[in-house]
Fold each of these.
Amino acid sequence: MIDLHTHSNVSDGTDTPRALINKAHSAGITVLALTDHDTTGGWDEATQYLRPGMDLVLGAEISCQTPEGVSVHMLGLLFDRENEPLASAMAQTRENRIGRMERIIGRMNENGIEITIEDVYAQLSEGGTLGRPHLADALIAKGYAKSRDEIFADWLHNNSKYYIAHYSPTPEEAIALIKGAGGVAVIAHPLASLRGRTVSLDSFSSYIEAGMDGIEISHRDHSPEGQEILNSVVKEFDLIPTGSSDYHGDGKLNQLAENQTDPSAWERLQAKAAHGRVIRL
Ligand code: AMP
Ligand code: ZN
Ligand code: FE
Ligand code: FE
């Protein structure tokens, strides 16, 4: 079982990297990618607690934004975390997320919602990537709602009056950064329309030109029709299809390995990585 996209509490998942490894091992996963948002901060702990019989794929999910303001997530796998351009782009995104959170909180305060940046930090692990889910958790702790889903539906979705974007590279820039660091680039859930606007298929040619290796197709936020369309894109442009859970612990309903990557696709993807190899005991 190959699951190439999961989150720990080093971003907006709720399991520590160690707990994530243990749960993946119990679930029978043989290849697990750790892809926290805009950070490699969980890599060492995941590596330290790796279990026998499991390959660990170190990666990150890079937040991107198109010039038109559409949010895109780009999975980078098997890259060199010491690579300066990529590391500093992720650091810039993380830094910018702080000011962005303060502005979102300011808007909420103006509308009578009582929440502070300290409340939000209380929901985030030390050094982790700050995101809207932590604000949701803080609002839940204050009794404003019962679940992240509820808060996102009411207040935190991308078309909400409280929504503010943060600095992000464009998808093309992110792909170039990942490839420049020796990794492979896979666009995450490109047709997940519930989250807001999605990129049109026309933009894929520009991503392919930038070096994109694959498309995450098998994902719970994709309809069967959407997956069919993406499968034809993958065939037409000789890209690599992946599948994943996008597991966030208790932060989402997604269960580990609920969607998976085909072993032959994973072989092809690995062969494209110039820097990294999987971690194995
Ligand atoms: P941000 O990176 O701060 O813009 O927040 C986006 C994150 O919120 C993404 O990683 C999503 O996984 C998460 N998210 C989006 N919608 C929901 C939802 N309805 N419930 C829980 N998490 C969500
Ligand atoms: Zn997330
Ligand atoms: Fe994502
Ligand atoms: Fe994700």
Amino acid sequence: MITTQSKTDLKNMNRQQLVRYVEMLGQPSFRAEQLLAWLYRPGITDFSQMTDLAKELRALLAQRARISRFENPVVEVSEDGAVKFGFTLEDGKMIESVLIPEEDRNTLCVSTQVGCAMGCTFCLTGKMGFSRNLKPAEIVNQVCAVRDWMLEQNRGDQIKGELSNLVFMGMGEPLANLDNLLIALSILTEQRGLDFSSRRITVSTSGLVPQMLEFGRKSEVNLAVSLHAVDNATRSMLMPINRKYPLEELLAACKEYQMKKRQRIMFEYVLLEGVNDSDADAVKLAELLRGIPCKINLLVVNATEGCPHRSPGREHILRFQEILRRRGYAVFIRQSRGEDISAACGQLAARVQGTPSV
Ligand code: SAH
Ligand code: SF4
């Protein structure tokens, strides 16, 4: 007998894979286009709803395949409008996504792994350790579930507009799950899939150099690099991955990274009091990034319980920004949203699963 779990989850497949799948079932390839359109339409949960497919094909699909979706998320709305979704996976593990509504856009912060193996000292997901990679369907289903939730909310007029932007800045290191990430991205940008523009998607990495270069060759979406320090000693202390791919290698890779016209790398730099926030650090940062088309996001650290770091004061952050601005960089300050509902960086899952604090 074929159980639900052993059926093929069609949401794990991009267009090419769906074509191969329908051909394997003895069907013409255009059936894949029809399937794609149905799979990502809100409210479609069952093959019997796919009215332009022949009855026999619908029956065959119902026997062999399934359409996974996330149900009953834990939803928490922050005072500042950010909405955190906790999803329970089929194996009982939890992940989260955070919706950040703004005037001109609605951005979803998406997870790519359960936990993370990178162990950055300031990050709560890092403290959870690594559990497993998310499958393409588990990445895509975060977007589907939040889109559906928004459709319901829009009826009640609470959040305006549609989901417009995606940032891969939730739990996990996206480029450590590169194959599944690429499949998910092709579904997300597929016209008959979720139809996001590549320009409105950003993937953030802690700096896995070979995967980063491969990603640049295979994907058109934007890249963000978590830099966080300007010398190897400090960066290795904060981000153990720096021992494998030190700053020189990472920045060289950024220089040769393939970009489209007008595309820029976004460098993230979390300001930690007394660690990486001096005037000299700002000057050095400006020097290191010289020649790379980029913008800089200064992140205000979300200093959770057990986090060994503190944020410098507002004045100090503005001063750091000013030093970079005077040297010609576009620099933005990013306060984490939803702190009252612990929306940043794996905090929901960490709390629910009772990760010991350090
Ligand atoms: N693993 C990827 C993407 C997820 S984290 C990466 O590290 O780039 C998204 C961003 O949030 C990264 O720049 C990360 O360094 C930053 N971050 C992690 N913990 C944080 C915290 N406590 N406060 C502020 N930013 C944090
Ligand atoms: Fe992983 Fe990114 Fe957190 Fe580092 S900052 S532990 S890479 S999720």
